[in-house]
Amino acid sequence: MTSTLSDRRLAGYSAASRTEPPRHLGRRYDLSGTFLPEPGNTVVCHLVDGSPSQAAVLEVRRRMQAMPDADRLAFTPVSSLHMTLFQGIIEYRRDLPYWPADVALDTEIDEMTRIYLDRLSGFRGAGPFQVEVVDVVPTGLTVAGATEADRRVMKAWRDALAGPFGYRHPDHDDYVFHVTFAYLIDWLDSDRLPAWEALFDEALALFAREAPILDLRPPAFCRFADMNHFEELLVLE
């Protein structure tokens, strides 16, 4: 791994370069690492339980949790691990273009979920795809379609889902797919960055060796009360 990639990988997580608190601190989770109520809905692909790639993911997560300064991170439960395919609405983001223009901004989250279940009835997606891990960062995995064809299918899914959801976020076309392990409670000390960089390089080698493809369940429309659990309501095809 070149120093350029390492520098880019951790630049946004270093206390030396950040003076503001982490973005979601105080709203999504608190200083103790407890996740706070933040209801919404989303379309995700959960990890396949018992798969070799899940075992690799959990091993990397375990190594991160064993780091001396892992208390800087609020880890999500294993059962919550997923890749978001399309972002739904969320309680604290009630404005355009993060909300359908044809539905009142003060509509209750449960009602929004019901509306989307109706709109997704009969929905047909763009077909299966495979993803690979392309980087590891303090908050989890960066993933992408394993081939150019897979990347086109994932883009087609997002384009298709924009119809029933009624919006396109500003990053619709360049959204970075990821599997969240944790959120930053505090930035990492600069003298700890080399150790984290070494861990992430080892993790990438582990994925290349043991899990070149990340096994994911089919996309599912889910609801959540916080970041601890994403309940599958409708599996999409």
CATH topology: Cyclic Phosphodiesterase, Chain: A
Annotation field: number of helices:
5
Helix-residue proportion: 25-40%
Which CATH class applies here? Alpha Beta
CATH architectural name: Alpha-Beta Complex
Describe this structure in words.
This protein has 237 residues and is α+β, with helices and mostly antiparallel strands. The protein has one domain: Cyclic Phosphodiesterase, Chain: A, CATH 3.90.1140.10. 29% of the residues lie in helices and 20% in strands. The chain has a four-stranded antiparallel β-sheet. Strand 8 and strand 9 form a beta hairpin. Helix 2 packs antiparallel against helix 5. It is globular. It starts with a helix and ends with a strand. The N terminus is likely disordered.
Short description:
By secondary structure, this protein is an alpha+beta fold.
Produce the secondary structure layout.
Elements: H1 3-10, E1 40-46, H2 52-65, E2 73-75, E3 82-90, H3 109-119, E4 131-137, E5 140-145, H4 148-165, E6 178-180, E7 182-184, H5 193-210, E8 220-224, E9 231-235
Question: What labels describe this entry?
Answer:
237 residues, alpha+beta, Cyclic Phosphodiesterase, Chain: A, three-stranded antiparallel sheet, disordered N terminus
